Predict the structure of Dimethylargininase.
Amino acid sequence: MAAFHYNFAIICRVPNALKNRSVGSDNYPEGIDIEKAKQEYETIREVLKNCDINIIELVEDESYPDCCFVDDTAVVIGNTALIARPGHSSRQGEVGEIRKVLKGDLRMNVVEIQNAKATLDGGDVLFTGKEIFVGVGKRTNEFGAQAVAEAFPEYAVSKVNFANCEALHLKDVFNMAGRNVMAVAPGPDVQVVLRQMQDVADYPYSVMQMDSRLATDMLYVNGHLIHHVRQEMGDKSYGVLDEKILTPRHHVQMTELSKVGGTIGSLAILITRTRNPKRFISNIQDEDLGYFTMWKRSDPHN
């Protein structure tokens, strides 16, 4: 089965508690417009449906203000689901309902983290379709990264030091924009992480340099790219997508959810449920490589 093809998504409604009790609400002590945040979530839900995805929608739990950001609770690739252990203690209870759905409803191969010292946020795990990068830093530690490697032995899993990056999660600043295209946020701290990834990668990727984090926030699914509206991305980055992305696109507004650290990808656990699970294969063609800055680093000694 080709990478980035999904038939299910687990999402969770936005709780009222997100307004002023979420982990990210410290940046907005006055709170966010919760009704607008719910509208943004509903728009993304409909866009996912339009991308031929079956939606499994969970009821919000006011005991967990960040429960709508489900991506942090599990890492799902193929028929294997690794239950995460979020790095912020207030979020660790969120995994219970996710585990029930993955194991009971979808009958996935559910893997638990055995090391009690491990922490792992799904937002730190970037699956490129061919290999996996894990950002070790604020929310995910070395033991959590090791758990990813053990859960998905069929893929190369590379750890990158993310501790000195200003962003909270790896996927706040790196996302796949296509079958072999990686969108990268600006900033010298991000470039340091990018060079690490280039050094340890088993495969080359094309780099699409964006000019803001919001512009980098995108989700590639079933041949469609979901990204922010022009007003949030800015004309320059939106123009980059116009020029370089040839697949169907859907733009969504994330003004309120992004204030508390929400991203498009954080709102969904994407799942490929197959009767006879097989390893994902990449369907990248040579012609896909012609539009972007190439991944390979130049040799500084030449």
Remarks:
- The chain is about 25% helix and 20% strand.
- Residues 276-294, 296-302 have pLDDT under 50 and may be disordered.
- The helical segments are 18-21, 34-50, 95-105, 142-151, 188-200, 213-216, 230-233, 235-244.
- The two ends are 40 Å apart (CA to CA).
